[in-house]
């Protein structure tokens, strides 16, 4: 795991020359956007509703398991095997690796598949195209949601999304068979639903009631921000896109900005907890092994 993170950091250093300005700009957008949204809504931290916030925290666990299942399916698509426990831990590290200004998560997932026996070409293609599938599905969902309010935006989203979903499924079907292709489709749809549910609770924590389907444009904003790989974990980009998406409906853009930010920070915190717990377990296990193998001395 440490070698994969070191490799991601190495690539990050190589990309600093042209990514640092964009990174700084995106972080400024995030900080200024949070401050502006906070003042715009006349909102205080003690106004956050604890129950929806707690539900959002609880949903981080199935989100982590979802990430692990996704890596298991990627391995299966490449004809490999990967235990769900290991896949979930790797997925947590991959999410944290998105803090790097390059697609660190993609590097971690690709590296995990290569270490499991896959080729670099197949592994990178699987990671890339299944990410495209997720974004394309989010486009279709957002397009359907926007039909009543913004038909001019809805149809292009649905068209691009449909083409993307069809193309990826055809490639995956040819490579891994129809069962794996359909399982991957169901898995990605489940990911859209989990993300939508998380955002629903994030909005509720801010005192805004929103239907599950109405969150789909913000799901797309979140995923597009992550896919941009410019800002750490999409921070700033996702929120700005969510605020832009809010202009097509009744949700205040400032609320959308904060809701997406809250969701992203919660997920990062959950992944950090999993990674910290895993490292503590590894250290404890290593200490136990040293104590077991230590020579016994006596007079």
Automatic annotation (TrEMBL):
<keyword id="KW-1133">Transmembrane helix</keyword>
<feature type="transmembrane region" description="Helical">
    <location>
        <begin position="53"/>
        <end position="75"/>
    </location>
</feature>
<protein>
    <submittedName>
        <fullName>Flippase-like domain-containing protein</fullName>
    </submittedName>
</protein>
<feature type="transmembrane region" description="Helical">
    <location>
        <begin position="125"/>
        <end position="147"/>
    </location>
</feature>
<feature type="transmembrane region" description="Helical">
    <location>
        <begin position="153"/>
        <end position="173"/>
    </location>
</feature>
<feature type="transmembrane region" description="Helical">
    <location>
        <begin position="203"/>
        <end position="223"/>
    </location>
</feature>
<feature type="transmembrane region" description="Helical">
    <location>
        <begin position="230"/>
        <end position="251"/>
    </location>
</feature>
<feature type="transmembrane region" description="Helical">
    <location>
        <begin position="21"/>
        <end position="41"/>
    </location>
</feature>
<keyword id="KW-0812">Transmembrane</keyword>
<keyword id="KW-0472">Membrane</keyword>
């Amino acid at each position: 795991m440490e070698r994969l993170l070191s490799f991601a950091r190495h690539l990050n250093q190589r990309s600093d020359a042209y990514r640092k300005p964009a990174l700084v700009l995106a972080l400024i957008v995030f900080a200024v956007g949070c401050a502006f949204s906070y003042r715009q809504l006349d909102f205080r931290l003690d106004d956050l509703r604890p129950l929806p916030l707690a539900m959002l925290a609880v949903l981080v666990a199935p989100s982590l398991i979802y990430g692990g299942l996704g890596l298991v399916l990627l391995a299966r698509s490449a004809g490999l095997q990967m235990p769900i426990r290991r896949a979930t831990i790797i997925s947590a590290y991959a999410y944290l690796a998105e803090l790097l200004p390059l697609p660190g998560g993609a590097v971690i997932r690709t590296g995990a598949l290569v270490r499991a026996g896959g080729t670099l070409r197949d592994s990178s293609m699987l990671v890339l195209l299944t990410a495209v599938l997720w974004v394309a599905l989010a486009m279709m969902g957002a397009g359907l949601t926007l039909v009543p309010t913004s038909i001019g935006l809805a149809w292009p989203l649905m068209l691009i999304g449909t083409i993307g979903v069809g193309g990826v499924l055809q490639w995956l079907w040819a490579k891994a068979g129809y069962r794996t292709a359909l399982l991957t489709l169901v898995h990605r749809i489940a990911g859209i639903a989990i993300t939508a549910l998380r955002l629903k609770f994030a909005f509720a924590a801010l005192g805004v009631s929103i239907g599950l389907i109405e969150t789909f444009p913000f799901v797309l904003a979140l995923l597009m921000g992550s896919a941009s790989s410019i800002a750490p974990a999409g921070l700033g980009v996702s929120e700005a896109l969510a605020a832009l998406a809010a202009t097509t409906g009744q949700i205040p853009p400032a609320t959308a900005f904060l809701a997406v930010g809250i969701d992203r920070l919660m997920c990062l915190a959950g992944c950090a907890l999993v990674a910290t717990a895993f490292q503590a377990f590894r250290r404890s296990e290593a200490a136990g092994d040293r104590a077991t193998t230590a020579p016994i001395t006596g007079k």
